Input
Amino acid sequence: MLANLNCGRTYPSEVARRIGVTRQAVYKMLKNLEKKEIVSLELDTERRNSKTIVITPKGEELIRAAVGILKEIEGELQARLPPGSVEQLRAVLEQDWGEP
Output
């Protein structure tokens, strides 16, 4: 879920479209993240009935920790796999896999 949020404004409807689930499912996930103080939902002044997703400082800390863990995993893969393998793996994972 957090990987699908933008640095600026993100609308729940955009997240639902990106990950291929209903808006209701996204709102349910967001409510759980909001209870844990990872994100907050704020009214959008430009789109009156819309809410935007805002990452809280606690959420930013969590994201930084996750990025650090991913870097550690990548370092471990580079140490264990033949040269160039991690780059090949990244290229495969970055391809468009089609609809979820």
